[in-house]
Amino acid sequence: MAIATGLSVASNYYAQPLLDTIAQSYRLSVNQAGFIVTAAQLGYACGLMFIVPLGDKFERRGMIVAMTMLSAAGMLVTASSGNLPMMIVGTAMTGLFSVVAQILVPLAATLADPAKRGKVVGMIMSGLLLGILLARTVAGALATLGGWRTVYWFASALMFIMALILWRTLPRYKQYSDLNYPQLLASIFRMYVGTPILRTRALIGCVSFASFSNLWTSMAFLLAAPPFYFSEAKIGLFGLVGAAGALAASRAGHLADRGKAKITTRYGLLLLLISWAFIWYGQHQVIALILGIIMLDLAVQGVHITNQSVIYRRMPQARNRLTSGYMTSYFIGGAVGSLVSASAFQAAGWTGVCVAGGILGVLNLLIWWRGQGYEDSGVVAA
Questions:
Q1: CB 39 within 8 A of CB 213
Q2: What are φ and ψ of residue 180, in 5° steps?
Q3: Under a CB-based contact definition with an 8 Å cutoff, are residues 71 and 100 in contact?
Q4: Which of 104, 106, 105, 80 is nearest to 93 (CA)?
Q5: According to the 3-state scheme, what is the secondary structure of 219-234?
Q6: Burial class (CB in 10 A: 0-12, 13-18, 19+), 38
Q7: Torsional sign, CA 290, 291, 297, 298
């Protein structure tokens, strides 16, 4: 399930190390190229809001397999695209159905032993973030061998194979609910309004992932330009650096199981803010950039795992809807972060990107300071 989660979400991020190459291929500006990533994240946000809640009503194995195949079909559209609009259609379609990852996460939480739920969520979410990060490494290597379209042909084939494996191995599971589709959607808004801890955690996740996207959207432009002049393959290798931080963050699930969610959140957000100082200096010294990437990815993943562990304990009967509300905020943050990053880079270069990252880090600490009092509250809306 962790591998399937990683593969599905990776499909939204193959483009990031290739943006400079795609921009040259279609003669795009930095802002236009950045919208490719934004389209994937907006498609993902729509899938989170309108598709993921159905996991609380329908049989999940069938949903997971069908969505995996549709996501693969979206990548086929991207691979065969002849212009930017067609590429955006394929990218948005892939993003819409790659939310299958967010059906798998609550299913894993449901099947897990309650005492180990944080650990299990941490493992699955590590698969998700590794998929996001290693997508860059794989995309850079494949693009060097056969061009950027090769990445999407290969990834689509992997997803079709994964759909078959999931069909053969996942247990059938259906959670019975008497709510119809409009009622399912309405209940998400009721939970969001009536559960302060969900709002706080969703906002923290939103701003954290905006910081993550702010870094990774523009980094290809930094590394492809002087003084680095890195190829797509070398740029993709920076995904391995981020993967090291993501793996280190899996410990956050254990800490959440032991009641230390506040500690992991507080120090994770402080680390996220500090990382931007290293990332800024990274335009002069690549070692500083590597250290900053590790710190940022460790912080974002640690806080994310903690957020999900906390909210899943509140309403076990509505985990897909909780996931929908939380992750919609999360990927809206990612889409906004991509737009901010592309605009900041075009306006003020790498320093502009880092200033935006620092502002997001301060904002996240303010959100946490304002909302941490709800951590011990039992207020929940069904």
A1: no
A2: -85, 180
A3: yes
A4: 80
A5: HHHHHHCCCCCCCHHH
A6: buried
A7: positive
The Cβ of residue 242 has, within 10 Å, a number of other Cβ atoms equal to 27
Q: Rg of the chain's alpha carbons, rounded to an integer? A: 19
pLDDT tens series, the chain, 382 aa:
999 999 998 998 888 778 888 888 888 887 788 788 888 878 888 898 889 888 877 888 999 999 999 999 999 999 999 888 999 999 999 999 999 988 998 888 788 777 777 778 778 877 887 887 788 788 888 988 888 899 999 999 999 999 999 999 998 877 666 778 888 888 888 888 888 888 899 999 999 999 999 998 889 889 988 888 888 788 878 878 877 776 766 667 677 777 778 888 999 999 999 999 999 999 999 999 999 999 998 899 889 888 888 887 776 667 778 878 888 888 789 889 988 998 999 999 999 999 999 999 999 999 999 887 666 554 444 4
Q: Dihedrals φ, ψ of 161, to 5°?
A: -65, -40
CA nearest to 303, candidates 239, 370, 215, 208: 208
Q: What is d(CA 87, CA 85) in angstroms, rounded to the nearest whole number?
A: 5
- Look up the CATH number of domain 2-376: 1.20.1250.20
Distance (Å, rounded) from C-alpha 48 to C-alpha 364?
A: 22
Please give the structure tokens belonging to residue 322.
């909780």
Do 38 and 335 meet the contact criterion of CB atoms below 8 Å apart? yes
Which amino acid is present at 340?
Answer: V
* DSSP letter (8 states) at residue 11: T
Q: What tokens were used for 353?
A: 């990107």
- CA 264, 269, 271 angle in degrees (round to 5)? 95
- The helix (H) or strand (E) run that includes residue 211 is helix 196-224
How far apart CA 185 and CA 318 sit, in angstroms, is 12
Q: Are 341 and 356 in contact (CB under 8 A)?
A: yes
Taking the C-alpha atoms of residue 157 and residue 141, their distance in angstroms, rounded to an integer, is 17
Q: What is the dihedral of CA 118, 65, 129, 10, to 10 degrees?
A: 180
